[in-house]
Amino acid sequence: MGRCQGLNNYRRLLKLSNTRRSYMPKALIWGESLVGSGHARVQSELARKLQEKGWEVSVITSSKAHTDHFDFGKANMIYQPQLKLKTPESDPYKIANLVTPDGKSLSTDMEYRKQRKEKLLNVYYDIRPDAIITEMWPYARANFDFELIPLAEAIKNDENRDLTPAPRLYSIARDIMFPPKISSPDSPGLNNDRHTIAYKYFKAGSIFARADKSIISLEASIGAIPEHLYQNIEYVGYFGYRPRQKDPDIRDETREVLVSSGGGVTRDSITLYKKSIAARKFSSFKNRIWRILIPHGCSTETLMEISSLASAEDSGGRIIVEHNRTDFPDLLSNAALLICHGGNMIVEAVSANIPLLVVPRQFAKNNLEQQIRARAFYDKGLTELATISEIDDPVYLAEKLDSAAKLPRSVFSVEHEGADRVAERITQHFIDKNKFMPLPGSLQPMKPVNWKQSNGLIIYKYKTVKKGRIGFGR
Q1: pLDDT on residue 224
Q2: What is the per-residue DSSP string for 139-169?
Q3: Considering the domain boundaries, does residue 401 fall inside one?
Q4: Do 229 and 297 lie in a common domain?
Q5: Which sequence ranges are marked TM in the entry (predicted)?
Q6: Tens digits of per-residue pLDDT, 444-462?
């Protein structure tokens, strides 16, 4: 920090201290949920964890249909005009498959892109956050380069100015990423090199991989990472629910079989529901209650169809079809077995030591995320695995279920507290940068060795000199 910038930062914070007893740092989270609601859940977990650390959080997204089903605490929710996939089966990585409110493709709707970019920049200048977190970008979401690169450039411009303290830019990367080869229209030319973008805009320790490196490393999907970028990336663990304790009052023989497609409904999800219902009578779990959990975004027609199949298969009501529930962590911890796709639910089931059959979605060839994740956990002996085509045979599916139940049960220590760690890292970076600032109780740093107190401020590496001037001591 230069002499002038440090002085101006001090004056800004001194002004804040005179109007508030302590300064509450501000975070802005950018994210989109294009297929399921898993990304919205990641954003909500981070929003809550940051609030617990004393942050004032804002979230900007166009995915209101997904974020409405999650608890963002007291976050300020800012919505862009909604984007939709052309069809539930469309590849979300292709910009032509993203449809704007006017029914146009994002790739051709120049006015929509302009409005989004301007709104995002206005939010940045209005809020003046201390930290900005982009979920998935830059190693994914290249379809949104048209607004995110200008945002990153605005941050860099502020870093070079004395009057405005610039925020730190962070990224939340998934365990499996497929860097896009094509950027969005209107984006500054960076040769579509995602490593170049990551190195240019993100500081050391600012790209958090929500992954457990002992199971999957980013290189498995992203390829070789340039050596100079290793310092920018930190593995923090998955974002997962803390395992709940089993209810001792539930007998083992009455524990339920859960079937879940996570937060999204595709053709593969509907196949999973139907074939699971058909396989029940061939399984050793045929006398138990089976609970089919369907996302809130599912159409009424699909929900009624699955419910009718369940009633026809078991008129006694022992196949329950209902929407996703907020108490899913408790349901999971008390389940006999889980059948699911290949998303983050794998982590939660393994952490809860629940037998698991994974049937990954079959997306386009450039989106093999679920297949790779499912195979990685299977290779560790933690799950049973089947493909969508294989479960077309209900007898085979029943055999796979029974095989999953017989796998040796041992609690495998999957790193699953990523949201806590990210909030801790961001908070610590903020404290290290602003050790002279009065902070809320949860953010208060220990007094450094070289400090002085003035007007309620802890001034780190600064000292007061004659006539009220500020000197910069070391």
Answers
A1: 84
A2: TS-GGGHHHHHHHHHHHHHHHT-SSSPPPEE
A3: yes
A4: no
A5: none
A6: 544 433 333 333 333 333 3
Q: Which two tokens stand for residue 101?
A: 């409110």
- Is 31 contained in some domain? yes
Same structural domain, 58 and 164 = yes
Query: How many helices (H) and strands (E) would you count in the chain?
Result: 14, 19
- Residue 118 and residue 324: Cα distance in Å, rounded? 36
Arithmetic mean of pLDDT, 245-257: 86
What tokens does 448 get? Answer: 């450094």
In a domain, 19, yes or no: no
Question: Domain limits at 217?
Answer: 26-240+418-431
Q: Amino acid identity, residue 424?
A: E
Per DSSP, 55 falls in state -
Is 465 among the domain residues?
no
Q: pLDDT for 289-339, tens place per residue?
A: 999 999 887 888 999 999 999 999 998 899 999 998 888 889 999 999 999
Which are the contacts of 241, defined by CB distance < 8 A and separation ≥ 6? 328, 329, 332, 348, 416
What distance in Å separates the CA atoms of residue 448 and residue 167, rounded to the nearest whole number?
23
Q: What is the pLDDT at residue 235?
A: 95
What is the rounded CA–CA span in Å between residue 18 and residue 168?
25
Q: Into how many domains does the chain fold? A: 2
Tell whether 65 and 143 lie within a shared domain.
yes
Tokens of 119: 């709104």
Q: How far is C-alpha 144 from the chain's CA centre?
A: 17
Give the CATH number, domain containing residue 91. Answer: 3.40.50.2000
Q: What is the pTM of this model?
A: 0.83
Q: Is 12 left (phi over 0), alpha (psi -120 to 50) or beta?
A: alpha
Residue position matching structure tokens 């920090």? 1
Same domain, residue pair 54 and 203: yes
346 plus 264 within the same structural domain = yes
